[in-house]
Amino acid sequence: MVTDYKGKLRYFADGAAVLVALYHIFFISGLADFLGIHLFLLRYRAGSLVTVILLVFLMYPAEKKAIKTTLGWHDILFIVMGVAPCIYLFIFAEQMIANDQMFYYTPAIITFIPLLIALLEAARRITGIAIVIIALIFFFYPMFQSHIPGLLGGKSFTFKPIASLLLIDLNLGIPGVAYGAASSIIIIFILFSNFLITSGASHFFLNLALSIIGSVRGGAAKVAVIASSFFGTLSGSVSANVAATGSITINGNNLAV
To answer: Which of 62, 87, 90, 91 is nearest to 76 (CA)?
Structure first.
């Protein structure tokens, strides 16, 4: 549930949203390189996680109120659990990669456990409990796969190396390839699509589709397809596409049935 805030908390939430946008635009646009600011890849993704985790727990608070003036202690706790490990990663990124063996032990566990809990809670608030259950199954699977017979069995691993891998690995870990794509490609599509929605440019695609095919039989469905296709040429975000064109075409199709 996305919550609306009032008072100082409203400015804080708006500032977090602006921070997410500016952080990613600053580095992805090449402006940082132009100014001589070069971030190690793990450091960049850790900084990205800081902004995203902060925004998620602000937009999806534990208390389901339409309007809030204060932030609950649950949300503050999860923000700290998620942001603090990412800041630690941001500061010590290069040292952690260079000396990853030492992070099989206490530092990895201390850093990884609260981050994992915060990410699972963020996923639960946004998508539901199902994705959390799936994530936990795959998380614990390497620890017990030696007890599984057949093709799904294999060598088991202890918690410590798994924590180290998921914490700092740029291929398989939390800041891995999947999040790398999200923080460098998908985020730009989302920002651009929201710009189109806010500026009203998304209505241009809808009106163009209406002028082409709106008067023929089944026009409502065909307009939805064409308008979505036009918008898809500019934004690869499914949610942004639905927000921009589907908010109008879906209602149109329902009325046409």
So the answer is: 62
Q: What is the DSSP letter of 148?
A: S
Q: Under a CB-based contact definition with an 8 Å cutoff, are residues 53 and 118 in contact?
A: yes
Q: Which two tokens stand for residue 29?
A: 């646009």
Which residue from 140, 86, 91, 90 is spatially nearest to 118, judged by alpha carbons? 86
Residue type, 253: N
Cα(191)–Cα(22) distance, integer angstroms: 10
Report the C-alpha gap between 63 and 74 in whole angstroms.
9
In 49-193, which ranges are E strands? Answer: 67-68
Answer whether 116's CB lies under 8 Å from 72's CB: no
Contact 42, 51 (CB under 8 A): no
- Return d(Cα 234, Cα 132) in angstroms, integer: 32
Model confidence pLDDT, tens digit, residues 126-172: 888 999 999 999 999 888 888 888 888 888 888 888 888 888 888 88
pTM confidence score: 0.77
Amino acid at 150: G
DSSP per position, 61-83: -SS--SEESS--HHHHHHHHHHH
Cβ within 8 Å of residue 88, ≥6 positions away: 111
Exposed / middle / buried, residue 38 (Cβ in 10 Å: 0-12, 13-18, 19+): exposed
Terminal CA-CA length for the chain:
30
Answer for the pair 72, 63: CB distance below 8 angstroms, yes or no: yes
